[in-house]
Amino acid sequence: MVRAAGRHPVRVLMIAGLVAALGGLLALRLEPSAATDTLVGRSTATFRATDRLHERFGDDAVVILVRGDLKNLVLTDNLGRLVGLEQCLGGKAPPGGQKGPCAQLARTKPIKVVYGPGTFLSSAATEIATQLQSQIRSTQAQARQAAATAVALAKQRGLSAAEQKQAAAAAAQSVQSRFYGQLLQLATRYGLSAKAANPSISNPEFVYSLVFDATQGAYVPKSRFAYLFPNDHSAVVQVRLKAGLDDQQRADAIELVRAAVALPQFTLNGASYTVTGAPVVVSDVTRTISRSLVGLLVGGLLMMAFVLPLVFRGRARMLPLGVALGAAGTIFGLMSLFGARLTLASIAVLPVLLGLGVDYAIQYQARVQEEGLERAVVRALPTIATAGLATVAGFAVLLLSPVPMVRGFGLLLMGGVVFAFFFALSAGTAALVALGRRRRAPAGGVVASSVRGAGDLLALLAGALQRPGRALSRAGGRAAAAVTGLSLRRPVLVLAAGALLAVSGWAVDSRTEVVSDIRQLVPRDLPAVQDILALQDTTNISGEVDVLVEAPDLTDPAVVAWMRDYQARLTKRFAYSAKNGCGRAELCPAVSLTDLFRTAGASSDQARVRGLLDAVPPYFSQAVITRDRRTAVMSFGIKLTSLDRQQAILDVMRSELHPPAGVHAELAGLTVLAAEANAALSAPLRRLGTLLAGLILVALALLLAYRRWERAWVPLVPIALATGWSALVLWVIGIPLNPMSATLGALVIAISTEFAVLLVARFFEERERGLAVGEALRRTYATTGAAVLASGVTAIAGFAVLAFSDVQMLADFGLVTVIDLSVSLLGVLAVLPAVLTLAERRRERRAPGPAPAAPSPEPALV
Length: 862
Fold this sequence. Notes:
The chain is an alpha+beta fold. Helix content is 66%, strand content 6%. The chain has 30 helices and eight strands. A four-stranded antiparallel β-sheet has the order 2-3-1-4, with helices on both faces. A four-stranded antiparallel β-sheet has the order 6-7-5-8, sandwiched between helices. The longest helix is centred in the middle third of the chain and has 45 residues, at 445-489.
């Protein structure tokens, strides 16, 4: 590859530029995704349960919070507007023209079911009126039949006509009395008063009797309908989208819901709408973070472009950044080509990949400029390849994560490292050869003079920028000399101090706070977050936890009794009561099958259970039980709190699940998936296990390369210590981790591996040339060490821009990454001389007679 690039530099540069440009154009098609399968793998029980839940009952609900005096909402013409809005959202009677949101919803049909106060009251009125008319007709027929039978019997007994008439009236009255008893049962079932004789939403007496509980207060809504009427100053409309919508379709549906709510014909008098819910927050946060990240990455590139000339000497100072951009564009283009999705974790790959790409290019370019192309290929490429192999091994530990987007993050980094390495060899070589030829070419023409003039101007600017860089370099050289001198004199002391700090870091790592409360991860003024906070402030709930119940026959009274008992135990444990409502309770009952069986004896036998389900309006039953009556859902409202606390609540819910034999019950929903993903990412033992697994994989990679443990363990020591140092610094500073930054242990290992392997290999090269330990260290740090420092500082500068983001999650991620990279870079540079000194002393003690030459620096795989 190097030979081909050297012989045909222009052709190779054109091919590399074309590949990078095509990759960049393809990458523009990538859309961010926050789908549930990016949080939890499709093979997990929770994901499968959530998939079944969404397929049968619709996706997680988009919530329309209606704020206003409840009696003004349901006892005035506002109720008609609510009915119209809910019909619009359900794809019926679309007003606003064929291009309006209602018509678009009717055409695209992204909504499975709309469940709100308007539909509930109108459906209840229709169902009650239908049942009432049916019973009236049946009663009239029965009364006529009873009267005829009574007359016939009276005739047989020889009674008079007056007596026959009296017997007929008595028989008809008996039938009517039974009817009034059944009517009373119907009224009791729906909580109606005797005054609500006309079941219609235009009848305030009927609506009042159905919605309000006069025993608790004049306008206190019934607790059994808390999921529709949480209190006397709000109502809730739930819009469940269809399962299987992609991110764009879901976002489009949410925008159509917002547009429909804003239509003037649905404007309420004295009340307002707020569109919120978990899908809305996820969609808006993803879009906001993506927009913010694009700007921050542009700023990061500019920062890296500014810093690179300061810290990297030699010709073509910006070439490493160009090589890194080419590799990044190619890998993201391949993502688009193969249909991969851009998750929040994969977005964060770009600054990491740019830093690594700059590192490989700087290392290769520095050796070419120092020793020439032929010698650099022979001596430097094996070392850089070994460093790349070990870095890939460090990132491979991310493939063990239970979270799919973290596995994708690791896979993308591994592929990016490979592309960065080969771009450095191909495009990097071609650019260096082409630049060398241009410098040797004779002057000629106006164009050539102009090009040289522009080059001289850029060289002048780079030189001006390098003056402070040279000052920093001299200061860094003095510091490196001091550390190297101390390591030569007291290597055990230096290593012991580093080990003590690392052990302290490992000890306090479990005490580092992991923030997962969405209010602390995104801009506080983000409308979606403000809306869901308003939902919680108004209704005392912000999300939903579902329990999916599957059984051969859910009308079995034993199953119904278990569901009622389970709901009662949980609500009591989390301080919910029908009198106080949700209040301070962390868990509240929401729409569930159990709401149908609250009255005494409602589930006493299977016939009554089936009869009651038959009498329920279909729009309501489809929200809680399937038509075959084999799958049902129990829903609970949960407060907006940290994912750790939500996980604790979910653990309690699981511990209370003891369904009868033959019944399968499982927690499901977006809230459950998010809490489980957070627990998987932030668990201290899992983080520690990730670090150990990463170190083991790096060790195996180094053994594969060197085939000798005596050589492989040297870079492992500072790599392992760096994980402890970064943990200690983060704990001391008090910067919390978040679900995005909790996996940075693998990044510390990979970056530390890169630095350590390159420095160790150069040290052994210098020892092979016959230099003493001290002189070999000085030479290593003056050459490869300077290149390592340049690439490290450039990568850190790119990440530093993220710390200025208004998205707190990105700001913390950027700050934590800067600290991790800085600690890794400085720690490896500081401790590695002590490790190398001790390794050489150990080798000399084991070697008989005069010290032999140092081992060859090339790994066995070359």
